[in-house]
Amino acid sequence: MYCVFLVLIFYAFNVACHEIVSKHIFPTGAFMTLRNTLSLNCSAIIATLMVFSPAAHAQIDEIIVTSQKREQSIQDVPIAVTAIDSEYIESRNITNIKSLSSLAPNVKIENTPGNTTGAQISIRGGVTINPALTWEPTVGLYFNGSYIGKTQGSVFDVADIERVEVLRGPQGTLYGRNTLGGAINIITAKPTGEFDTKLRIGAGNYGAQSLRVSSNLGSLGPIRAKVTGSIEKRDGFVKGVENPFPGVTLAGPLSSNEFESIDKKSLLVALSADLTDTLTLDYTFDYSDADQTPAFSQIINVSPNNIFDPSFAGYVGGGPFGGQYFGFPLDLYVNSDRQFTGTTDAEVFERSEVQGHNLTAALQTGIGELKSITSYRKMTWEDSLDLDGSPLPLANTMRLTDYDSFSQELQLTGATGRMNYVLGAYYFTDDGFTDNPQTFFGGASVFDSRGGFTTDAKAVYGQLEFAVTDALTLTGGLRYTEEDKTIDRANIAIAFTGLPPNTPFVPEGTTAKEKFTDLSPQVTLAYAASDDINFYAKYA
After folding, report:
1. pLDDT value at position 122?
2. Interhelix angle for 2-20 vs 31-50, to 10°?
3. How many CA atoms lie within 13 A of 69 on its CB side?
4. Which pLDDT tens digit goes with each residue over 10-32?
5. How far is C-alpha 359 from the chain's CA centre?
6. CA angle 427, 432, 438 (to 5 degrees)
7. Strand partners of residue 169
8. Collapsing DSSP states into helix, strand and coil, what is residue 442?
9. CA–CA dist 355, 439 (Å, integer)
10. Is the pLDDT of residue 264 over 70?
11. Could you give the CA distance from residue 500 to residue 271 in angstroms, rounded to a whole number?
12. How confident is the model at residue 103 (pLDDT cuts 50, 70, 90)?
């Protein structure tokens, strides 16, 4: 009865939204996209509320997760975990990490400043905001069981996600490095061995177009195959226009016709094979390519008493003299209202190419399942930003990055009597290099800034779960890690007012290396009060 009442309320709300928006906000055909969005959102709310009715609750299927390296009902896992299934993902057109924002408690995902292919992932307040390769994330991102090491390039498209698991809180024993805030597992759909194809076409305002095709290609002997591809394009939210102040003599020509556009494509190839009754192989190749423009760097204010404040004695605007400005009058381009047009003189772009190979072999033995997960990932990432958001040659920076990583993990999961166990060994290595040229004040300051690094990490771990009684379970785990890191750094002032040319701020050849070790414990006490209620206390 309550559900029927709620449905009527939201139906009335939807109709009211339709009338208001169609008559007063979007009276043209552009309203169709918004109306569809409102209808979808209202339907989603209704579906969520109906879950709490006894009849609907009985229809919910059991949710299986692998957050503890073995298949378990989510009800039995003593972890703060949220699982998002394929139906939910498909209905909301989720194809990348950014789309998962706010789908789980205490989880927030945003783009890194100025970019659309890097992710700031925050769980319970733990977040790394700098996308530089030399910074380590506080939330571990895993793709088909393999660790993705950096925030740059972490927003890549995968058009065939089967399940996403969000684990909140430290996950040190089973997941290891850089999971202080938590971990996110992305699992793609495996080939079914049948012949079928799904086609999804989308269109929207700002010239948005999308195409997704997913095809199961049947089987050839023991081998099953699946191919999924997607293309997405959209015009920018901000249009590029010429300099609106012709009296500014240092203003350059327009460098970009739009900002925050989308132009990306992705491919996922999945192969599975049951080689014997006890041995299975799963291989995935994922490829994602983006060539688009970053967000417009809008200037919303100029601080008082600084060089861009016209009332300040040190104002660098150089005018007005006869209507002309002969310096850097940045204050002319300040606007605190949201802008839909913008002007820049420096080249702006964002290009990301990510590819990965993942091979998982699982062998059923007399002592449990022995699994090998091998992964290789490579990324080329480049961007150029006009930081001042004006046609003045004030601040331009580029980041030209190459990065690759390799990981190998061996796992043994099994059970004996009242005990479940997970044992493993892990190896991870990566290296990256970023060239970061920077230019300020029309070339008065020019920096050759660059850096590279390597990482070698090794770990062994074990976790035992013992059923003290049918309701009470005690879990303990340890992980030992050794990690070796190196870094190379240079920052040379090619030009800097008052200094000789090529003055080193960080001399070329500056290097460092360090070794780290850590023992990560975990203890969990769980009590199943009933089939529907489970209490646990955890130290990690």
Report:
1. 86
2. 170
3. 31
4. 344 343 443 433 343 333 333 23
5. 22
6. 155
7. none
8. helix
9. 31
10. yes
11. 59
12. confident
